[in-house]
Amino acid sequence: MENIYYQYHKGTAHPNICLVFLHEGLGSIKTWRNYPETLRKASGMSTMAYDRPGYGKSTGNLLNRPLNYLNLAAADLFNLLQKEKIDQVILYGHSDGGSIALDFAAKYPTMALALITEAAHVIVEDITLVGIRKAVKAYEENKLKGLQKWHESDYTVIFEAWSKTWLNPAFKEWSLLKELTLIKCPKLIIQGTEDQYGTLKQVQLIENLTKGKTDLYIPKCGHTPFKEETTAVTDKVIAFLNDTIL
Questions:
Q1: Would you call 240 exposed, middle or buried from its count of C-beta atoms within 10 A (0-12, 13-18, 19+)?
Q2: What is the pTM of this model?
Q3: Domain count for the chain
Q4: Which is one GO molecular function term here (predicted)?
């Protein structure tokens, strides 16, 4: 049985609303750095960050995982929230985590009060595959050993599970287009203009297919806006939380 490692901190002003952080495809709790704590102090909400099965300190086997792994992750999150008796969440997902956040909101609409995504994917774009092939080349040249600091387990398994899934020809047909039509909660969609893994087409699909209020923030940066444009992104997120929930 998988053991999911997580960090859960109660808020002060809004302890019953939990801001849940969902890491990217090569990430873990550690890749968020102190960002969850920054937003907890600014918003007064409770926060939760966790390592998905097979990542960071969580147990789990990523070898031969199914191609619909992103769609299966919502159930893991639901079970974790049930364990802590959390029934109202705002989801903050980066990259793979953004896709999972969207899928969760479609499957559990009464729990998801709002969504914040950065560099989320809802379809597989050619630019994504080009970016992953470049990452594979860097990995083969031993240039990605920095990933080791994010994971207790062997980072090579995590990298190969991520790259082989996305580069599998059958994965080209994966999408969240049907799920988007089921989402009704407020959303803040963040996408860097220089992102090597996705374009503004992802943003347009989310905005056009979902219902409810959608705010967009399109900074001139790459794949990780919360790291590359920390002050501006933090300000946008806090303003969104204030306008939407708090």
A1: buried
A2: 0.96
A3: 1
A4: hydrolase activity
